[in-house]
Design a protein that fits this description.
Layout (H helix, E strand, L loop, with lengths): L1 E10 L5 E4 L1 H11 L4 E6 L5 E6 L3 H14 L15 H10 L2 E7 L2 E2 L6 E6 L5 E10 L1
Antiparallel strand pairs: 1-8, 2-7, 3-5, 3-8, 4-7, 5-6
Bound molecules: zinc ion.
Zinc ion binds next to loops.
């Protein structure tokens, strides 16, 4: 089994943002030469997450609004006494730092409305995305 890994850097420009990284992930899979296997997309960050969903601009705003409802940034969280980003840690904990996708015929399998997106919860920052491809 081949294991191929690349780190992709993503610059975010707002406190909350969804950044479509589908093409970057697919390019790593192409460079890996893996035809049958899996790709894992992982962020080594406590205040960012990865999702797979539809890249429709209004929906992206809705997802961000839902995240803010789930973990309101202006609530007096205890962590905010030392670092003003408890909401980001909480949302990142719930959404999760990684998603994985099957690879068949050298292509990433995903639904028509499943783009791979980095969820920025405490930007703007430069985020690392670790893309690991495993298979044959
Ligand atoms: Zn913090």
């Amino acid at each position: 089994m081949r294991v191929y890994r690349e780190e992709v850097r993503v610059s975010t420009s707002r406190r909350f943002e969804l950044v479509d990284i589908t093409r970057k992930v697919e390019e790593v899979v192409e460079r890996s030469k893996v035809k049958e296997g899996f790709v894992q997309v992982f962020v080594p960050h406590a205040t960012a997450a990865i999702i797979a969903n539809e890249h429709e601009p209004r929906l992206l705003q809705d997802i961000i609004e839902a995240i803010k409802t789930l973990a309101p940034p202006d609530k007096p969280w205890k962590h905010n006494e030392i670092d003003n980003n408890a909401h980001a840690h909480i949302a990142a904990s719930i959404i999760g730092p990684s998603r994985s996708f099957p690879i068949a015929g050298g292509q990433v399998i995903r639904g028509t409305w499943q783009n791979i997106m980095l969820v920025e919860l405490d930007g703007p920052r430069v985020r690392r995305v670790i893309v690991t491809v495993a298979g044959e």
